[in-house]
Write a structure and sequence with these properties.
The complex is a heterodimer of chains A (260) and B (274). Helices cover 78% and strands 0% of the residues of chain A. With 274 residues, chain B is mainly alpha-helical. Chain B has two domains: 47 residues, no CATH class; 208 residues, MetI-like (MetI-like fold), CATH 1.10.3720.10. The N terminus of chain B is likely disordered. The chains are: A mainly alpha (260), B mainly alpha (274). At the A-B interface, helix 1, helix 4, helix 5, helix 7 and helix 8 of A face helix 1, helix 2, helix 5, helix 6 and helix 10 of B.
């Protein structure tokens, strides 16, 4: 799966699978009509819906507007969560005292799934973007903290002692030892964070939004418009996939020394 | 943290050395006290309305009240029970389909080549994005939410069973093959037992994701259950009801996790005794 490099033959089989699925889709919905159109669209209908949302607009916006609006909210929530969560997690990993003080509060809040914060965020901030960013922030925050914490703890103590005996200052120690040492696990946390962000965003937008891919899904569900539901779902998958790929690219650039 | 003074090595060890038990308890209490204190302070200060941010004790009182006073038709326990029934169905379905599928994918390379790309592509669709189809195909009563829980809980089941089967000691498989075992017997008698730890770890992850998907499903489509309590609380702008619901969700999620952790530990112990 991931990590494992795809061999050409595997890639070919994968391609054949996709072609077969689309063919099967066509046969089941259009040619043989095994699945009635109320439940699942034909490929032609899906393309038509894609054209409609791309050029005419659907659910108060064009596809690219929905797409970028969703991506923007995820990025915003994700960035704030990483900005606060990673340092906090590293602090907890570094200082036993900070860990002892923060951990109980963290344990208290952690079992509450991010999605359960949505109603609270709506009560506090309304149906606008602020509520979504708050919930996305929370979704990304927990994995970011936990993995940064584990990342610092995974550093061999002798590395820190060695650095210290060479006389590095505190800031230098953080930059040269703690951050690089914790980075592999931090990135694991970021990947989990990103996934949680997308789930949360879609749920938040399904519950109430004026723009965004979740809003497209909501409107399509309301209108019983299966073709548009498919377009919305594929868009969500593509947006999530692109961001995950971007993070993977960043990971390789950030840790050139790390074996893949 | 007196890290500026003394020689270079000792402080590094001191700051990472274990604290005493009482120190941990004291600091932990201080942390909790600070959390609840700030919360109460923010609530009482009058900066926000009490309705938006009630103090902790109001929420606690509301939580207790909800356990005997019916809210939108049912008490808190009854809401939780109906949620849990949906969760159980979705989770069981995911495990019953996902684990065998993962084992098959781990054994038959050609099956893996065909299904893995599909599976990987589908995984990018957030479980919650299935809500419109779930409602369209199975309605909003039981079927719709169960499908969403299933889509949330399914991937870890498959992935971990797959990984478990893939990394089984080759010698075990070869020994079985030498003794004339066919595919079916190898899967059920070699791969399955050998990948139990990986499968149980996957089940734990999938239970967490399933529970979370359940909350999402109930927020959007259900007319009963714990997620519905949150929606109703939100609609009547009652933060204390919303928070009570969140606490209940957290408690059940925590209980599920503890139970599966126990199971995992027990299986691990049983294996080392063999």
């Amino acid at each position: 799966m991931s990590g494992e490099r795809l061999r050409p033959s595997r890639l070919a089989v994968g391609g054949v699978t996709f072609v077969a699925v689309i063919l099967l889709w066509y046969v089941a919905t259009s040619a043989a009509q095994i699945i009635p159109g109320v439940y699942f669209p034909t490929p032609a209908e899906a393309l038509q819906a894609l054209r409609q949302i791309s050029f005419v607009g659907y659910a108060d916006g064009l596809l690219y507007q929905h797409f970028f609006h969703s991506c923007w909210l995820v990025l915003l929530g994700f960035a704030v969560a990483v900005g606060i969560g990673v340092p906090l997690g590293m602090l907890m990993g570094w200082s036993r005292r900070a860990e002892a003080a923060i951990n109980p509060v963290f344990l208290l809040l952690r079992p509450i799934p991010p999605l359960a914060w949505i109603p609270l965020a709506i009560v506090w901030l309304g149906l606008g973007d602020a509520a979504k960013v708050l919930v996305i922030w929370f979704a990304a925050f927990v994995p970011a903290v936990i993995n940064s914490y584990a990342g610092v703890r995974s550093i061999e103590p002798y590395l820190i002692e060695a650095a210290r005996s060479l006389g590095v200052r505190r800031l230098q120690l953080v930059r040269e030892v703690l951050v690089p040492g914790a980075l592999p696990l931090i990135f694991t946390g970021l990947r989990l964070s990103l996934q949680a962000c997308w789930t949360t965003l879609v749920a938040g937008e399904l519950i109430g939004a004026i723009l965004g891919l979740g809003h497209v899904l909501y409107q399509a569900g309301l209108d019983i418009f299966p073709a548009m539901i498919v377009v919305g779902m594929v868009s969500v998958a593509i947006a999530g996939g692109l961001m995950t790929a971007a993070l993977g690219w960043l990971e390789v650039r950030a840790m050139p020394w790390h074996p893949r | 943290m007196a890290r500026g003074s003394g020689d270079a090595v000792a402080p590094a060890i001191a700051s990472r050395g274990p604290l005493s038990r009482s120190e941990v308890a004291l600091l932990g209490c201080a942390g909790l006290l600070a959390f609840f204190g700030l919360w109460a302070l923010a609530s009482l200060s009058g900066l926000t309305s009490r309705q938006f941010l009630p103090p902790p004790w109001t929420v606690a009182a509301k939580f207790v009240e909800l356990t005997y006073e019916p809210f939108s038709g049912y008490t808190l326990q009854q809401h939780l029970l109906s949620s849990f029934a949906r969760f159980g169905m979705g989770f069981a379905l995911a495990a019953l389909v996902g684990v065998p599928l993962g084992l098959l994918l781990g054994w038959f390379r050609w099956l893996d080549a065909i299904f893995s790309p599909l599976f990987d592509a589908l995984r990018f669709v957030a479980p919650i994005a299935w809500v419109p189809f779930a409602a369209l195909w199975f309605g909003t009563g039981i079927g719709g939410p169960v499908l969403i829980i299933f889509t949330g809980a399914f991937p870890p089941c498959v992935i971990n069973a797959h990984r478990g089967a893939r990394y089984v000691d080759r010698r075990l498989v070869e020994a079985a093959q030498t003794l004339g075992a066919r595919n079916w017997r190898i899967i059920s008698e070699v791969l399955l037992p050998a990948s139990v730890p990986s499968i149980v770890a996957g089940l734990r992850v999938s239970a967490g994701l399933g529970w979370q998907s359940l909350v999402g499903a109930e927020l959007i489509v259900a007319s009963s259950g714990i997620g519905y309590v949150l929606v109703k609380g939100q609609a009547s702008i009652s933060t204390s009801i919303v928070m009570s619901g969140m606490i209940a969700i957290g408690l059940v999620g925590f209980a599920i996790d503890v139970l599966l952790r126990r199971l995992e530990a027990r299986l691990q112990r049983g294996r080392t005794h063999d």
